[in-house]
Design goal:
79% helix; elongated
């Protein structure tokens, strides 16, 4: 359950671009399709909390992906009649180093006190890394020789669907805007189609389908969390207003008693 009031309290530090606001706005309306909040305050608050709560998911996916790359490369090396080439070793080291850096950066972002800034840095960094990685993968598939393509197809047969689902989950749990998130999914889908054209395998062909299905499910889950956030915020606002009314009535009663005693003494 999301607790909006405890997320961005008035005394908590925010990004230098965020306005100083004593209280959150009352507008918690959402876009019907994307679920984006009309008020930027609530959009930032939800994205920051969503990103922070997804830390365990991100850490697990990065760690499992690092293990999966090693298993896939070992499978390709074991099934191939020839020994791994220098380019294959370089690709394995590059992917492993990238995953280690992503995991270390995610831990550092989770430890940041400014959750809004951490979410922004994490989202844009992940988007840039994903774009560069997809461009490199597409370039390797298109301009590579037959041996490298064969090795890529063997690895894709093992990891294509799992990789598509894992990337989609990480994309969907960064608290990104709908347009940026959709663009990354579309680019990943394009890469999957190119990979399917080069590697006509059933497991590779099902990867774009798994990507789209995962994106839809994650978007539906995020919409449910956004509605929960809005509901919790409305309940907290009602509680705050009720407390203010009770305090006002108590103050009026105390003033009346004080005036009555002063009148009695007079």
């Amino acid at each position: 359950m999301f607790a909006p009031a405890a997320l961005l309290a008035p005394g908590e530090p925010r990004s230098e671009h965020d306005p100083e606001r004593a209280v959150a706005a009352d507008d918690v309306t959402m876009h019907r399709l994307t679920g984006s909040f009309t008020d930027p305050y609530h959009e930032q608050a939800f994205a920051a909390q969503f990103f922070r709560q997804a830390f365990s998911i991100h850490a697990m996916i990065f760690a499992v992906s690092l293990l999966g790359i090693s298993v896939a490369d070992a499978f390709v090396a074991w099934s191939s009649p020839s020994s791994p080439t220098v380019s294959q070793w370089a690709a394995w080291l590059t992917n492993s180093l990238l995953l280690v850096l992503c995991l270390a950066a995610r831990v550092m972002l989770h430890r940041m006190h400014d959750s809004v800034r951490a979410q922004r840095l994490g989202s844009w960094t992940w988007a840039v890394v994903m774009m560069v990685a997809q461009v490199v993968d597409i370039g390797g598939l298109v301009v590579g020789d037959s041996m490298s393509r064969s090795a890529s197809c063997e690895a894709a047969q093992v990891m294509a669907m799992v990789q598509a689902i894992a990337i989609c989950v990480v994309n969907g749990t960064h608290g990104m805007r709908f347009a940026l998130k959709g663009g990354l999914v579309a680019f990943q889908g394009l890469r999957g189609l190119i990979e399917t054209a080069i590697c006509p395998l059933v497991a590779v062909a099902l990867a774009p389908v798994a990507l789209i299905a995962s994106a839809i499910l994650i978007q539906m889950a995020e919409l449910c969390l956004r509605r929960s956030y809005a509901k919790q915020y409305c309940l907290l606002e009602d509680k705050r207003r009720l407390e203010e009314r009770l305090k006002e009535k108590l103050r009026e009663r105390l003033e009346e008693r004080l005036e009555k005693r002063l009148d009695d003494f007079a």
